[in-house]
Amino acid sequence: MNTIWIVLPILIVLMFQLGIELDRQAFAGVFRRPAAVVAGLAGQLLVLPLIAFGVALAFRLPPVWFMGLMLIACCPGGSSSNVFSMLAKGDVALSVTLTALSSVITLFTIPVVMGFAARFVSVHTEAAIELPAGKLLMQNIVLLFLPMAAGALFRHWRPDAARRVHALLGHVAFPALMLLAAVFFVQYASAILENLGTLGLAAGALILLAMGAGSLLARMFRLGRAARRTIVIEVGMQNAAQAIAIAASPLIFDNGEMAVPAIVYALLMNVILLVYLKLLPKYSGGTVAD
């Protein structure tokens, strides 16, 4: 079973849904709260890949999983982060702004980061991993930018219909992502179960360190509690569907095993963030990363 044909429609739907959320207000947030936007983007685009690199080295991940962990770290924020920000009583407008900006910026940063990771792996191991940067850029434009732009135009020209479609997609997006994770889990069950300890610890460490880094950045920029919570979620929650699409794409890496870290990450990410939401009311004084 070629799982890429499951990944692609799910990713397109997720990006179309994100596009429907976008309006002038989403990008106007850059000017209304520049410090929060800078803190969030720095966490996502700079700090998170560095953390992933350190975690991959610390756990001595094999080349294919080293690349997989780096891949999930340099993807944009997931569209579900907007829902988690709302549940956490965070700054939802900031969440939408960060998700939108990171989705556009990573069109160009993913080839750079993954190109570095591929060269590092090739030099320090016997694995020769090549990255077709041009094909990666084109695939990201087709699967991310165009559906997102289509969603934004749909909202602009048919606002009432767009609201109804967005509500419908909101109910199916998360189950679709979990279906995708389940399909990959079944396909690579033996490899995942044999290495669940290492992969689970590495993915869990990445998520927790990313959330901690997001909280630290927000405090360094002296942001309010709502913005802090949003940045913690945005830095800790990445677009796993995109990572899977790049890893499994026959145009890019064509390696389903490289998607395994993203699968483990997607499962742990939701569990950890649900625990985070559960802890927030108990630590309203600020002793938990919020």
TrEMBL record:
Transmembrane segments: 6-23, 35-59, 65-85, 92-116, 136-154, 166-190, 196-218, 230-253, 259-277
Gene Ontology CC, one term: membrane
InterPro entries xrefs: BilAc:Na_symport/Acr3, Bilac:Na_transpt, Na+/solute_symporter_sf
A Pfam family it matches: SBF
Domain of life: Bacteria
Membrane topology: Multi-pass membrane protein
Compartmental location: Membrane
Keywords: Membrane, Transmembrane, Transmembrane helix
Protein name: Bile acid:Na+ symporter, BASS family
